Amino acid sequence: MERVVLLTGGTSGIGLAAARLFLQEGCTVALAGRTAERGEAALAALGELASDGRAAFFAADLRCAKEAKRLVEAVCTRFSRLDVLVNSAGVYLERALEDLTEEEFEDVMDTNVKGTFFTTQAALAPLKASRGSIVNLSSDAGLHGNFLCTAYCASKGAVTLFTKALALELAPFGVRVNCVCPGDVATPMTEAQIRSAGDADEALRQMAGVYPLGRIATPEEAAAVIFFLASEAASFVTGAAWSVDGGLTA
Q1: Distance CA 7, CA 168 (A)
Q2: Residue 21 near residue 31 (C-beta atoms within 8 A)
Q3: What is the C-alpha separation between 137 and 106, in angstroms, rounded?
Q4: Burial of 45 (0-12, 13-18, 19+ CB in 10 A)
Q5: Which residues are catalytically annotated?
Q6: The model's pTM
Q7: In which band, very low, low, confident or very high, does the pLDDT at 192 lie, cut at 50, 70 and 90?
Q8: pLDDT digit string (tens) for 221-250?
Q9: Is it true that domain 4-185+219-241 has CATH number 2.30.130.40?
Q10: Which residues, 6+ apart, have CB-to-CB distance to 150 below 8 Å?
Q11: What is the number of other CB atoms lying within 10 angstroms of the CB of residue 108?
């Protein structure tokens, strides 16, 4: 049976790489993001994979519970079912706690925590009906502390434990819940961070230098683990926080 996948934050980076992989493997993919322009660009980047109606974009601001509910209803109306939810939407912030504003804190928590929480909540009924799977995007920062990342670590730590608690709650319904915890990945967000450092080459060398494997990840490497956790190959895996960090947290 062809699976229907709802993928938030699917317009760039890990989310877009995951969308491409799901499509290549015969799934139908609903991409969700905040702006239609980015959605159109993502569909164009997917090329022929998105040309036969197996991919569609839905604009939604998932920081709001009503928007999350509207999104899931629209996806189920369009595709009649939902088998996989990938909560990939997120924002990153480096800021000393003493300099952190309330608005910055709320943006990080609303996007990373409320977006994941409320989209999942809205998708529970169709996922129970299909005995589906949920994969949340956490971070190495959801497993250990990172310098100048108190708000981000708090948000991703919440995603990791939300994943574990929900895995127990949904196990009786046959719904598996896991999360992926990447380190630095070569995404537009990371590239912008590197460019802002001045000497981009040196910044990349320093970033890669903390990883035992000597480099940062590609979006495709993180996407491959997302796909695995959503697949029947991981049928006895639930409540797991899967590190994709080149040995950083080992």
Answers
A1: 22
A2: no
A3: 19
A4: middle
A5: 152
A6: 0.96
A7: confident
A8: 999 999 999 999 999 999 999 999 999 999
A9: no
A10: 95, 97, 100
A11: 24
Token pair listed for 188:
């537009």
- Other Cβ atoms less than 10 A from the Cβ of 68: the count is 25
User: Whole-angstrom distance between the N-terminal and C-terminal Cα of the chain?
Assistant: 38
Closest CA to 7 of 234, 191, 227, 238: 227
The pair of structure tokens assigned to 163 is 């994943």
